[in-house]
Every structure is written in structure tokens, then in C-alpha cells.
């Protein structure tokens, strides 16, 4: 990262970074979530917050890997909150209400055998977020916005 | 209890990550659903699973688990072993089923 960019972030009290997630790339799946967790740990964010961020980012990352062609994860940390926006190009979700139901999944048999597709991804993201928004367009993609407050009581 | 001690007492095979056998094991978790492990396992847990693919290493890395035991005499994929070495995650094997192994761990004092 360029020094000037770092200085700007320090003045604005905001750390942000954009990560690329490749669809079907199971070999690197989980790397983005681990990088974010390591960063939060280094900064000294409380473990209870890191735990929730790790669950939410992992599930969001895996959804891009499993279903989409390509995605980005934008991460921003301010003194008040962590905001994560995951935007993918992929099949989209036809019925969001259904997709949010615990146990519902469109995963293939092969993915299920690998222990994915339990229908816990989106519900777990929501459970661990203080703010959660999902929008989707069929054949275009899905966008998630996840906010976790640093002083939140939601454990 | 240190992972090394558990490996010796329960006769586990060391497949990868032998430099991390000094890891302290705080408890155990048995599951084959990755979302479940991500949501409910705790740092320092020993994870019992029959999954053998490389994504178990990413889960263990993210959750900072003490190690993974592949049960039922199953063999991990080559990629899984390579990743475990790279991420320094102890990857172990057992002939026992998850149920039997969890019972033995419980007897050793390793609880949930």
C-alpha cells in the first residue's frame, strides 16, 4: 500500500481495502476472510467482534466461490464499525426470502458431499450482522451489505 | 492438553503439520458441515471430520483450530496435505469413527 494512501486513511480514521474473489476457485476459498481476520487481530479488535466478522465474511466469500463467476469484497473499518460489501457477477437469487430460510440451499449434490450447501450461509451472515442488506438480480448478480458495530451487544 | 499427547494416547497418524503438535487443545468439535464448524467451533478445538478436501484447511486456519483429525481411516486429498503443510495446520488420521474418537477424547478430559 502506498504511503500517501495510508496517511490519508489515518487522517480520515478509515481503513479500507478491496479484495477480488474468483468463482469456482476452491483452492483459494477462505483466503480473503483469513486476511481480514488477521488484519483485525493485528489492530486489536475484540475477539467477539472478529469471530462474527470471520463467520460473515467466510460465508459471503464461499457463496461467491460456489455460485458466482466473479466478485469483489470491499472492507472498511472506522472507529465505530466494520462495513463489508460483497458484490458478485453471477446467477443472482430468484427468491431472496426463500434463500434466507435456514436449511434452504441450491447447492449441487457434489457441493453437499463436500459439506457445503447446508443452507446456513445467508442466515449465519444475518445472525452475525448488526445491519444486513441483500439485493439480487437474476442472471446479473447479488450484493450483500454487512455492518458490524465495534461496540455492539450482539454476541 | 497438548496435541502431541493426544496423538500418542489415541494412536493418531500424523499426516501433516508436525511442527505444530505443541498446540494446546482447548476442546473438540465433530461435524462434516463446514458452515456449522465456521459458526460453532472455537479457537484451539480439535476438529473431527470425514471431509478430506482442501477447504477443511481454510476453515481450520480461519477458526485457528488446534488441528484436524480425519476419521474412519479416510485419506485426505493431495491438495489437502499440501495446504496443511503450507498453513501449518496439524492434519491427523484415525481408524476410529467420529463417535468412538470423540468418546476417547472425552475420557482424556477433552470436552466441548
Global shape of chain A: globular
Return the string of H and E elements of chain A: HEHHEEHHHEE
- Assembly of the depicted chains: heterodimer
- Head-to-tail CA distance between termini of chain A: 33 Å
Descriptive key words:
heterodimer; A: 155 residues; alpha+beta; Heat Shock Protein 90; five-stranded antiparallel sheet; 6 helices; 5 strands; globular; B: 112 residues; alpha/beta; Udp-n-acetylmuramoylalanyl-d-glutamate--2,6- Diaminopimelate Ligase, Chain: A, domain 1; 5 helices; 38% helix
Protein model, in words:
In chain A, 39% of the residues lie in helices and 26% in strands. Chain A has 155 residues and is α+β, with helices and mostly antiparallel strands. Chain A has a single domain (3-149), classed as Histidine kinase-like ATPase, C-terminal domain (Heat Shock Protein 90), CATH 3.30.565.10. In chain A, a hairpin with a 3-residue loop joins strand 4 (131-137) and strand 5 (141-149). Chain B has one domain (3-107): Udp-n-acetylmuramoylalanyl-d-glutamate--2,6- Diaminopimelate Ligase, Chain: A, domain 1 (3-Layer(aba) Sandwich). Chain B has helices at residues 3-9, 34-40, 55-63, 78-87, 98-107, and strands spanning 13-16, 27-30, 45-49, 67-70, 91-93. In chain B, 38% of the residues lie in helices and 18% in strands. Chain B is α/β, with parallel strands linked by helices. Chains A and B meet through helix 2 and helix 3 of A and helix 2 and helix 3 of B.
Structure in a nutshell:
With 155 residues, chain A is an alpha+beta fold.
Please write out the topology.
The complex is a heterodimer of chains A (155) and B (112).
Chain A: H1 3-12, E1 15-22, H2 31-43, H3 47-67, E2 70-77, E3 81-89, H4 96-99, H5 109-113, H6 121-127, E4 131-137, E5 141-149
Antiparallel strand pairs in A: 1-2, 2-3, 3-5, 4-5
Helix pairs in contact in A: 2-3, 3-6
Chain B: H1 3-9, E1 13-16, E2 27-30, H2 34-40, E3 45-49, H3 55-63, E4 67-70, H4 78-87, E5 91-93, H5 98-107
Parallel strand pairs in B: 2-3, 3-4, 4-5
Antiparallel strand pairs in B: 1-5
Amino acid at each position: 500500500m502506498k504511503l500517501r494512501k495510508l496517511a490519508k486513511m489515518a487522517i480520515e480514521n478509515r481503513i479500507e481495502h478491496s479484495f477480488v474473489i474468483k468463482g469456482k476457485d476452491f483452492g483459494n476459498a477462505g483466503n480473503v476472510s483469513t486476511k481480514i481476520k488477521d488484519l483485525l487481530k493485528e489492530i486489536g479488535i475484540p475477539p467477539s467482534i472478529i469471530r462474527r466478522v470471520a463467520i460473515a465474511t467466510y460465508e459471503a466469500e464461499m457463496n461467491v466461490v460456489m455460485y458466482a463467476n466473479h466478485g469483489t469484497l470491499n472492507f472498511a473499518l472506522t472507529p465505530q464499525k466494520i462495513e463489508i460489501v460483497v458484490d458478485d457477477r453471477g446467477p443472482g437469487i430468484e427468491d431472496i426470502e426463500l434463500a434466507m430460510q435456514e436449511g434452504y440451499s441450491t447447492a449441487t449434490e457434489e457441493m453437499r458431499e463436500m459439506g457445503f450447501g447446508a443452507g446456513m450461509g445467508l442466515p449465519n451472515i444475518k445472525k452475525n450482522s448488526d445491519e444486513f442488506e441483500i439485493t439480487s438480480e437474476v442472471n446479473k448478480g447479488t450484493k450483500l451489505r454487512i455492518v458490524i458495530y465495534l461496540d455492539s451487544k450482539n454476541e | 492438553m497438548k496435541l502431541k499427547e493426544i496423538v500418542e494416547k489415541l494412536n493418531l497418524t500424523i499426516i501433516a503439520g508436525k511442527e505444530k503438535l505443541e498446540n494446546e487443545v482447548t476442546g473438540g468439535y465433530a461435524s462434516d458441515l463446514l458452515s456449522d464448524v465456521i459458526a460453532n467451533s472455537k479457537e484451539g478445538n480439535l476438529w473431527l471430520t470425514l471431509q478430506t478436501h482442501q477447504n477443511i484447511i481454510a476453515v481450520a486456519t480461519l477458526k485457528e483450530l488446534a488441528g484436524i483429525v480425519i476419521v474412519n481411516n479416510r485419506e485426505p486429498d493431495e491438495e489437502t496435505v499440501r495446504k496443511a503443510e503450507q498453513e501449518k495446520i496439524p492434519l491427523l488420521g484415525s481408524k476410529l469413527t467420529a463417535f468412538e474418537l470423540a468418546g476417547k477424547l472425552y475420557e482424556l478430559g477433552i470436552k466441548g
